[in-house]
Amino acid sequence: MAVMNVTPDSFSDGGQFYAGTSLNLDSILAAVEGALADGATLIDIGGESTRPGASPVSQQEECDRVLPVVEAVAARFDVVISVDTSSPEVMRGAVDLGAGMLNDVRALRRDGALAAAADCGVPVCLMHMQGEPASMQQKPEYRDIVAEVKAFLAERSAACREAGLLDNHILWDPGFGFGKSLSHNLQLFNALPHLAETGYPLLVGVSRKSMLGAVTGRDVDQRMAASVTMAALAAERGAAILRVHDVRETADALAMVAALKKEKDQA
Ligand code: 7PM
């Protein structure tokens, strides 16, 4: 899954599609074309900056950012478009225009989001986050990070089924970097095989995140090796979808993981 942030201010790829405050659709289409050529099979389009400390955007602002992009990408490419949003308006609008998946860092907890997602009838990624982006990294605390993330995702999955979503339209994401210390992130990553046992496909997003900076000491633009390594390890540990910035390098790593698995399965 290739990340396309259509925000003027994202931490790892800030404003790459903007000239000042105006969005350049052609530059997004070129980036999507590149990501597909590099091996992406899903494109994740997001208009809300969820970096730690980010201020919230209005639903109108988010619609204005995201919907034209979804429309243009859907018209031009045969690829599954995922929309990174917590807003029911954006969900309905995006799926009307051709989006095939919803990706919500708030796991459909916003008013109206469960009903909107159920009406949309597409797969939904439920992500765990402690707190809200503005303050989530100030004091993350858990008794048992793995048990708590798992219980949260199980509760949200039950709420989804009650709202009418199909069980096989639910994906789980532990939410790396969202209200978690380095130790919390590492514990969760080590628990991926345990989470995979639940049967819900796992989506993992660690690309360029600060947990990699904390270990390697590298700035955000120097985290590719760490990102690709973690993507390969996540795949090995049962992740179904990797949300990444460096598509070509990740695709190579995943090809190697797949080759090893194929050889093993034949033995
Ligand atoms: C800190 C945390 C800074 C996250 C920036 C981000 C995920 C996501 C994002 C994820 C799913 C980024 C982001 N991260 N959706 N949206 N999983 N499902 O790296 O890990 O772009 S935003």
TrEMBL record:
Coiled coil: none annotated. InterPro entries: DHP_synth-like (IPR045031), DHP_synth_dom (IPR006390), Dihydropteroate_synth-like_sf (IPR011005), Pterin-binding_dom (IPR000489). It catalyses: (7,8-dihydropterin-6-yl)methyl diphosphate + 4-aminobenzoate = 7,8-dihydropteroate + diphosphate. The keyword Cytoplasm does not apply. Its EC number is 2.5.1.15. Residues 1-255 form the Pterin-binding domain. Keywords: Folate biosynthesis, Magnesium, Metal-binding, Transferase. Its cofactor is Mg(2+). Pathway: Cofactor biosynthesis; tetrahydrofolate biosynthesis; 7,8-dihydrofolate from 2-amino-4-hydroxy-6-hydroxymethyl-7,8-dihydropteridine diphosphate and 4-aminobenzoate: step 1/2. It comes from the Bacteria. The keyword RNA-binding does not apply. GO terms for molecular function: dihydropteroate synthase activity; metal ion binding. One of its GO terms (biological process) is folic acid biosynthetic process. One of its GO terms (cellular component) is cytosol. It is an enzyme of class 2 (transferase). Pfam families: Pterin_bind (PF00809). This is dihydropteroate synthase. It comes from Spongiibacter nanhainus. The lineage of its organism: Bacteria, Pseudomonadati, Pseudomonadota, Gammaproteobacteria, Cellvibrionales.
